[in-house]
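User: Okay, second chain of the day. Same drill as before: sequence in, structure tokens out.
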Amino acid sequence: MLTGKNVVVFGGTGSLGKLLVKRLLAGECGFPKKLLIVSRDEAKQHFMRLEFQKLAVATDELFYNNYQRVLQFHIGDIRDYSSVRTAIRDADYVFNAAALKQVPACEYFPYEAVLTNIVGAENIARAIRENGLKVDTVIGVSTDKACTPVNVMGMTKAIQERIYGRANLDCPDTRFACVRYGNVLASRGSVIPLFHEQIATGGPVTITTETMTRFLLPLEHAVDTIFACLKGAKPGEIYVPKCPAANIKDLAEVMIGDTGIELKVIGIRPGEKEHEALVSDEESHRSTERDGYYVVIPILPELQPQSYEPSDIAGFEYDSRKDLMNKAQIKALLEKNDLLTPHALAVRMKEIAAKR
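Assistant: Same drill. Structure tokens below.
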């Protein structure tokens, strides 16, 4: 699909973006002609460039498929229209993983979240619309917080989903679709790196409430969802992975293990939900299952298929309180993703030392 194509990734220096780039370079969807990473942080781009050019073993050259020819970096800001237009002027495929995603930060600086999460998405659609760009597909990365949103981060991401849905009407030659998922394991700013840091420094490990639940999605599964959306989504659809959920207290206790470190309840942060949902009851009436994913059909009737029938999962609400993992299952998930090992803790301690 991507062989010989120009691909642009906004937010490509983040945890998700970096793995997405690695797997794109590995040719899982074909080998792109050019892969352009767009972000406004030159330091992150510099360290990512060094990381990707470090060949630990000879076979890495095969893995990256001559990456030095393909991979390029571009300083730019998704909030700036001219910057976006320049970055995607010859793009065939665009992935938008740029986001202001910390819930409390978005509550204290709501307009900053609007600029990144809403205006940024509109800038991509506007650049394609006003310049007649020949972009085949745009995939936006959303969040479970966009489902029945109560915080600024979720509200802005919910509007981003609607902007991409509407863009299909304005740019009929470009397909706009989204993926939506919960907490990505060990992504930057998520709870697991926080717990690692608290454990590494002797505690306490802090949780907001004893009953809080969250979906937990391995980073690889997040990229799998993006690729499934790329390959199978129709215009305006939202792909939602089937992923496990856990009680955060149980997660903290599994990570603490027998260290004796204190567990402390500190209360819900500004804008934080106690539980999350990935498909709401309202959305379930226009949702379906496809290739192992839930798919939310667009709300605009012009984008709904002519053969649209009542959903086969109507009345279903995909809520993080249902089918929670037990502690043994949480432990197995963390171990599978190398997040419950002395190595994982050592890496986190090294990161902490580097900050000092």
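The chain is about 40% helix and 20% strand.

User: Thanks, on to the next one.
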